[in-house]
Structures are given as structure tokens and as C-alpha cells.
């Protein structure tokens, strides 16, 4: 990103801190994946 | 709301992203808040334990035990407070920034659990109402809207994707909250009746800590920031404004109230399915109708409820992202148009005992219910600009609170009436679905009536961050 005023074409930020974004997504993604898996297991009973 | 200006780390100025900040860190920060507060959807997991604190046996309640109605009021209070606090604190949030608001939300939501735990320990339902319902409900409202305008500012090119990702968390929160509560109650069963009070304490602490990830990760973009290659207002739609409308002016426009009706009807209809999902599928496909051993059991019905939760989550991301391409008005027209057809089809599928198709249709309906929530902030941003969009969204959420009362009321009235007439199986629910389809017609008409906001409502001159712009 570019914090300078009046700059029409800022630098893309994605290239600089990709690792921290991956960790951040894991922090929220893992509990969510656990919740989804629990729900999915429960939902299987519907099709038995 | 308390002034926290003595804590400089929380000031809006300290949350402006430094050079090189990755905007993809913002959706996880928002998700941390929404995954936590989405636990509210799983409150029913406490119904039986809370109803047997004295007797110790849900099947044989004591006269002093809380009734299901008494316990259910806790959730209703929380949802009403969600809408009210989102409406009341929206402008404050825009002024102080997302970090302070998220911290306030975490304190209220976590604190609500702790006060609720005290209410459970003392067997004082009013303290439970105050804790989880009022204090926790305020946390829900502030938390729900806290990341919305920040996400829209970081993702002007993908507003639907960004808000869909966050609001998806609210749908997913129950999937974590429900099994976690069951596991904790099992763990604490030996030290307190049903293990509920210590579970409330543990969940209050866990959610508070989890929300801190969002609090300390969230950043707002600098005034001049824009995504690389982004061309403002490149979208060709008459509905997308180039101006900015304040929250106070927004509620004077017909567009705001049309969207209010759109959200109200979509949510009321969806709640109609969610509210009755378990008894609905068990009554429609019972042993009596399907043959002994072939009916839907209670465990299978719980699976059906879980599947609906999953599609509620997926719909929030899928439909909101699709709205970036389709346009918001078209997306809502799909929710309503397709919804009308599917709501009318469901009773027929029930009569014909087509279980698989029945489940598929219900899942599509619930995906559009979730999509309706997630598409709303981007629609508001299109119509009113990004200035105070969080506050406008907060005011719109009063439609949700209204639907939270209206939806179950309609369903129970119609279903009770059908049962009094001796109707059983799918027939006992068909008027519920036809009424909801009628509501969706109203929503469709409201959506089709949405036009661009008159320029007279727009702010004159530049807007400032302190006033809620950025």
C-alpha cells in the first residue's frame, strides 16, 4: 500500500506479508474447519 | 459508550495501516469477531441443561426449573439488543474506528457470559437475561457491524466478497459454539448442575481471547489508499453512487426503507424454515407416513439442522461474492424470485415424500437467507457510499430484530392453527410455506422499486474520518 496522499496507483500489499496472512487465516480457519467437520458428521445421519 | 481515549493503542489514528500491510489480514480479523458472536445461533444447545438445573433430569423437570419459554426469552433479548445496539452505536463506531468497537464488543460478549454464569449459579433468570441477553446482545450488535465499513474500504473492488467472508463467520459461529458447549458441559458436569455455569465462564474467557486476535489485527487503510489497478466507479450501474450519504440522511430516503423491507421479508421467511427445521422434517417424513423404521429420526433431524447451518454459511459467501458480478438488485431478485418458487414447491415435495429433493430445496432456501444478510452491506455501500456505511448497516439491522420476533410468531400461529384443524405431515406446514412465499413477493416488489438515491441527500464537500468517513 502507499500512504502518500494523492497517489493514484499504490503498490499492491499482497506481495509483502503473505506469510502473516496465511497464519491469520489458519487461526480462524482451523476452528471453522473443525466446526464444519462436526456439522458434516452430524448431517450424515440424515442419509443413513 | 465509555470513552477509551486514555488508551492510545485503541485510537483510530493508531490503527491506520503501515506501508506494506496486507489487506488479506483484514478478513480474518473480521472473521474472528463474527465466528465468536455467531455462537448466539447455538444458544439452543443450553435449552435442556438450563431447564433441568434443579431436577437434574430434562425428562422430569422440577416445578422450580426454568421453562423452555423462559429460557427462549434469553435468545430473543439478545437478538433484539443486537439490532438496537447496532443502530445506536453505529455512528460511534464510525467515529472511533473498528479496534475500539471490537474491544467493546469482546468485553460485552465475554462479560455477558460471565454475568450469565452468575445468574445460572444463583438460579436467577433475570441475571441471565441481563448478562447473556442485554450485555451479550450489545456485544453482538457492536461486533456484527464493527468490521463492515473497514472491509468495504479495503475491498472497494470486491465489496461482496469481503463482507461475505466476514458475515459468513456469523453463520459458522454456531458450528463451533454448539459442539464446544456440549464438550465443555460434559467436562464440567461433576462440579456444577449440568456443567452449565462453568461452561459459561469458560466460553466467556475463550471468546474474549479469540476476539482479541481481531481487535489487534484490524487496520484501517490510509485515506489515499486504493488497491493496485483499481479504477473508482468503474462499475456500470445507475445504482452505484459516487457521493456519500450520512446515516441520519440515509434513513430519510425511500431506498433505506425499501432495503429494510427487503431484509425483513427475506429474514422472516428464512427463520420460518430454521425455526421449525427439526419438527418439520420429522413430522413430514415420520414413521407413520413413511413406514416403521423408514421415518426421519431425531438424530437425522439434527443432521438436517446441521446441513442447513452449513448452507447458511456457504450462502453468505457464495451469494455475496456473486453479487459483485450480478449486481445487488439482481442478486436480491434471485433470492426472492427463486425463493417464491422453492417455498411453493416444498409442501408438494413433502406430500410426495421426496426426501432428498426436499432437503436440497431447503438447503438452497437457507443459502439465500444467509446471502440476504451478507449482500446487504455492499448494497448499502452502492447506494449510500462508504461514508458511515457501518452506521447505516447498523440501523438496517433493526429489520433483523423485527424478523426475529415476527418469523417465529407467524410460524407458530399457522402451525398451531393447522394442528387444531387436524392436519398432519406436510399438510400441517403448507400454509407456513405459502405465507412465506407471499412475504417474498412483497420483498421482490421492494427490491424492484429500489432506484438511485437522490443527490440532495449527499454530503456536500469532503468527508472526514472523525465524522465517520475515511
Explain how this protein is built.
The complex is a heterodimer of chains A (48) and B (470). Chain A is an all-alpha fold and 48 residues long. Chain A contains 1 helix and no strands. Chain A is rod-shaped. The N terminus of chain A is likely disordered. Chain B is mainly alpha-helical and 470 residues long. Helix content of chain B is 68%, strand content 0%. The mean pLDDT of chain B is 90. The interface between A and B is large, with 39 and 49 residues.
The CATH superfamily of the largest domain in chain B is MFS general substrate transporter like domains
Instruction: Catalogue the unreliable spans of chain B.
Output: none
**DSSP, total strands of chain A:** 0
Radius of gyration of chain B: 22 Å
- Relative strand content of chain A: under 5%
> What does the largest sheet of chain B look like?
none
